[in-house]
């Protein structure tokens, strides 16, 4: 067997394992990957074509999400994983669109404008425009993604969440079984500045040391964070509620600033404004949080079962030759 043939076998083997793990619940008789499709088609979902062109665009977005700047630094297995993630998301979205159509669900202009306004309200006009520019998000893509998210939320609500009910006894049982969870942890209220580059973050950090330069003013002017319009105010949060890189704030005293922190989102500076010491919550105090936890657990379980059923009933074919040729 030649090296080329061995590499192809490796590609197909790894891809098959990932696809069966990610797509899940497949009936092997109808989900055996197919290679007899046109080069411009990457896959078929219930006879609906997924185009190579759209796959390449989505793969680029996935690479940006995982901050892949240099294609040459990617290992073959890492590229396969990214491609499989991309394909799996495309298959999932196609199944969701098909199911929404079957249920007669649509997104009207009023719903779209209301949703967009809610997001824009978290930003100043300048910071929202700057965020789109930095992330290189065209307005058409933004609108399309918003409409998709609204439609999928309506679909999940109707197909999954509507039938789930949580009783008072379930809430009380959860409280009794998770007493330690309601010993409220130390909370911090912090201001936040997020920018795209380390140089910009270091420059802002240096300027904040100068008398008269206020953190909240800088957040409004320069931050790409969703709370920039509120002067960077993130409100109160506990350790573990934010990305792990943000936990540095719990090591700071009230009124102190952090150093520049790097994360997958960009570069960050924090300032601690207030600290609340731990306390234990009564059942009535904890009840809203418990209801949210139990409801989300039930919804997640029902959602996974629903998605698995959608995929099990679907006819999914993969064009391995076209997929392998994409780098």
Summed up, what is this model?
54% of the residues lie in helices and 13% in strands.
Structure keywords:
327 residues, alpha+beta, Chitinase A, domain 3, four-stranded antiparallel sheet, 12 helices, 13% strand, globular, disordered N terminus
Characterization of the model:
This protein is α+β, with helices and mostly antiparallel strands and 327 residues long. Among the domains are: 3-99 and 315-325, no CATH class; 186-277, Chitinase A, domain 3 (Roll), CATH 3.10.50.40. 54% of the residues lie in helices and 13% in strands. The chain has twelve helices and nine strands. It has helices at residues 3-23, 28-31, 52-65, 76-102, 109-120, 125-134, 139-159, 168-177, 198-208, 215-222, 283-313, 320-325; strands at 41-45, 48-51, 183-184, 187-195, 233-238, 261-262, 267-276, 279-280, 316-318. The strands form three sheets. Strands 5-4-7-6 form a four-stranded antiparallel sheet, with helices on one face. Strands 2-1-9 form a three-stranded antiparallel sheet. Strands 3-8 form a two-stranded antiparallel ribbon. A hairpin with a 2-residue loop joins strand 1 (41-45) and strand 2 (48-51). Helix 1 runs parallel beside helix 4 (76-102) and helix 3 crosses helix 4. The longest helix is centred in the C-terminal third of the chain and has 31 residues, at 283-313. It is globular, with a radius of gyration of 24 Å. The model is unreliable at 1-35 (pLDDT under 50).
């Amino acid at each position: 067997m030649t090296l080329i043939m061995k590499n192809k076998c490796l590609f197909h083997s790894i891809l098959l394992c990932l696809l069966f793990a990610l797509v899940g619940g497949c009936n092997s008789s109808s989900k055996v990957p197919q290679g007899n499709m046109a080069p411009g088609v990457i896959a078929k979902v219930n006879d609906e074509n997924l185009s190579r062109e759209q796959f390449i665009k989505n793969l680029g977005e996935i690479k940006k999400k995982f901050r892949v700047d240099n294609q040459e630094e990617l290992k073959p297995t890492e590229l396969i994983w990214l491609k499989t993630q991309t394909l799996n998301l495309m298959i999932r979205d196609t199944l969701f669109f098909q199911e929404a159509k079957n249920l007669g669900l649509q997104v009207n202009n009023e719903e779209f404008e209301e949703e967009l306004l809610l997001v824009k309200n978290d930003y100043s006009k300048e910071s929202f425009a700057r965020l789109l520019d930095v992330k290189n998000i065209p307005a058409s893509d933004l609108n399309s993604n918003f409409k998709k998210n609204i439609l999928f939320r309506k679909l999940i609500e109707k197909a999954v969440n509507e039938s789930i009910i949580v009783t008072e006894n379930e809430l009380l049982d959860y409280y009794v079984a998770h007493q330690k969870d309601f010993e409220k942890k130390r909370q911090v209220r912090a201001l936040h500045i997020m920018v795209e580059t380390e140089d910009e973050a270091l420059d802002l950090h240096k300027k904040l040391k100068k008398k008269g330069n206020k953190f909240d003013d800088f957040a409004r002017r320069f931050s790409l964070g969703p709370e920039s319009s509120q002067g960077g105010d993130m409100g109160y949060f506990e350790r573990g509620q934010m990305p792990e890189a943000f936990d540095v704030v719990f090591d700071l005293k009230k009124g102190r600033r952090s150093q520049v922190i790097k994360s997958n989102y960009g570069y960050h500076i924090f300032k601690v404004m207030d600290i609340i010491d731990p306390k234990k919550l009564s059942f009535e105090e904890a009840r809203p949080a418990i209801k949210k936890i139990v409801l989300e657990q039930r919804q997640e379980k029902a959602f996974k079962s629903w998605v698995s059923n959608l995929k099990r009933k679907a006819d999914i074919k993969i064009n391995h030759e076209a997929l392998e040729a994409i780098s």
